[in-house]
Design brief:
Elements lengths: L8 H31 L20 H10 L2 H13 L3 H6 L1 E5 L7 H40 L4 H21 L3 H4 L10 H6 L1 E5 L35
Antiparallel strand pairs: 1-2
Helix pairs in contact: 3-5, 5-6
């Protein structure tokens, strides 16, 4: 893809919000069905002592619940990206994840992309947490120093605390995803690692211009017989 139509950051962000809402709704619906079935006696409940002969520990039903509920968001993103290249949110906004050459991603690439996003978010989130903690300690010291001034010091202290909390809440959850807002190809860091891009699906990509055949060496540019067509010169 020479000129892919990259999806804008805000479209990707809105699609991600829709995906999170879908995941939360799906988990709550399945949880409700699980509770109704447990109350009807069809299977064990979620209490730790239910379904266990010794009265303690996890039952098989709880083990199955853990295998479903905990990695469910991973199932959602890997399956839909690997099958369609789109999640439900991306389908609504007509954007899709593809390889850098424009080909569809498979389940392996979808899984690697998700793992890269999780790992990079953990690393960068930890660095942001450490940075905010250090800056917060300095701000607290300055605020304590200003508190000697009176009301002005208290106002500055409250403002510094508020700014530190807001910065942490905005940056720590998605440092990898926010990179797409400033990248010329609209790639997140996980996209760069896995060599994927997010493009529009509703608009076709530009068709490459046709390439004219080159005349063989020694032939005249305007002479049709100079091309290697197998035909001789007219008599």
């Amino acid at each position: 893809m020479e000129h892919p139509l990259y999806a804008r950051f805000w479209s990707r962000a809105a699609a991600r919000i829709i995906d999170l809402v879908v995941i939360i709704v799906a988990i709550n619906l399945i949880y409700l069905i699980d509770q109704l079935g447990a109350n009807a006696g069809l299977w064990a409940g979620m209490e730790l002592n239910e379904g266990s002969r010794t009265g303690v520990g996890f039952s098989m039903a709880n083990a199955l619940r853990g295998l479903f509920y905990l990695p469910f968001p991973g199932y959602y993103f890997v399956y839909l990206h690997g099958t369609y290249g789109q999640t439900i949110g991306k389908m609504i906004f007509h954007i899709s994840v593809v390889n850098s050459d424009g080909s569809h991603i498979d389940y392996r690439k979808a899984l690697l992309r998700l793992l890269a996003e999780i790992f990079l978010n953990l690393v960068l989130g930890f660095l942001i947490l450490v940075t905010v903690s250090i800056v917060g300690a300095l701000i607290a010291f300055l605020a304590f120093s200003f508190s000697m001034v009176g009301l002005l010091g208290k106002l500055l202290s409250a403002a510094f605390d508020y700014i530190a909390i807001v910065v942490f809440l905005i940056l720590s959850p998605c440092p990898v995803f926010l990179w797409a807002a400033f990248d010329p190809r609209k790639q997140g860091l996980h996209d760069k690692v896995c060599k994927t891009i997010v493009v529009w699906t509703g608009v076709p990509s530009p068709i490459p211009a046709p390439v004219e055949p080159e005349a063989p060496a020694g032939g005249l540019p305007g002479d049709p017989t100079s091309l290697d067509t197998g035909a001789g010169r007219p008599i």
